[in-house]
Amino acid sequence: MLRTGTQPLLSRPMVLLGVTSLASMTSFYLLVPIVPLYAASGGSGETGAGLSTGVTMLATVLMELVMPALLARYGYRAGMALGVLLLGLPPALLVLSSALPMVLATSLARGAGLAIVVVVGPAMVAELAPAQRRGEALGAYGVAVGIPAILGLPTGLWLVPLIGYGPVFLAGTGLALLALIGIPGLPARAAPVEQHGGVLRALRHAGLARPAVVFAAITTAAGVLLTFLPLAVPAGSPGTAATALLAHSCAMPLARWAAGRYGDRHGQSVLLVPAVIAAVVGMAGIVWLDNPYAVIAGAALFGAGFGAAQNVTLVLMLARSPSSAFGRVSALWNLAYDGGMGIGAVGFGLVAGPAGYPAGFALIAAVLALALLPSWLDTRSERKPTNER
Q: Are the beta carbons of 143 and 257 closer than 8 angstroms?
């Protein structure tokens, strides 16, 4: 157990939260690139592939809007249990059919479960961790929820050709249900509630809106990468997509932890612009789809920028809010995460056909570069002695 003075960084509830999140998110990430492929194989094509991710993110966003009220009423433990069940049970139904209505229905349920899990986690970490090491604690939690991406994203792509879609879907169900083991050890108490304003009302606060907008831009690009890279790589090199997603998912949690540790010591805001630059350059590298080295390096660099941005934006938003608003801030941050993912997947699915994948990835890199302006403005504002808190 790591300690600062008498305050533990990794308490028993924090460890159990990490274990629960690890199992449930491994279930989710295992199926992230598989469900779009399954929808496309069922005759829905690129539009169906994009819709499967988009519907998941839509359900996630809608659930996140009500998460502060849900946690205030039912508490962390009951909320997490519901989220795990919604993540785990629906994939078993996909064994029955690859028709688009079935895919979209299960995607809706999984999206709602994802919203619960990802909002409960950071809010609990922010409450349980010592304030002076909150960035490091959130970075460590980011590693715990980043490992599922390392394990799940490439593993699903490797398993489907070997054992088929059905067993992979059932494995996703089993992994999520394993997460129920750690839930009894989580705090049962209700989350504190801020008396004024809902989730979207927080966007009126410039100190919250700027990081949220920057993060939404990066997650839009992430939605494109995770949904369409397996479809975009040349047919003769299927291993490129799996390796690139592995590189991406390894770089992401490492960068998230490093950003948290560095930010606690030197300030979080100085990392925002470099994180966006890394994401832009990484996405630009993926344009060269015929070059596997460029694709893999680009995915890794984008993952590093994405991971750093995850921690920096979340810690900045929490630092600018009272503890009673942690649930709302977590929900807003996750809205930026999942809303961006959904917009990226659906939007790119509509333009990928006529524009082509290389041009589409170049366009996403150019749009992502626009996030440098609010990143710079936020860093500049943070340095002013009169900055808004």
A: yes
- Work out the pLDDT band at 192, boundaries 50, 70, 90: low
Task: Say if CB 323 and CB 307 are below 8 A apart.
Answer: no
Token digits for 162?
Answer: 């070997």
Confidence of residue 48 (pLDDT cuts 50, 70, 90): confident
SS (H, E, C) 186-201: CCCCCCCCCCCCCCHH
- Average pLDDT value for residue range 43-54: 79
Residue among 84, 79, 35 at smallest CA distance from 57: 35
What letter represents residue 177's amino acid? L
CB 215 within 8 A of CB 333: yes
Residue 8: pLDDT above 70?
no
Contact predicate 182/19, CB 8 Å = yes
N-terminal to C-terminal alpha carbon distance within the chain: 32
Q: Token digits for 95? A: 């064994």
341 pLDDT higher than 70: yes
Q: Yes or no: say if 156 and 91 are a contact pair by the CB < 8 Å rule.
A: no
Confidence of residue 171 (pLDDT cuts 50, 70, 90): very high
SS3 call for 8 = strand
pLDDT given at position 194: 53
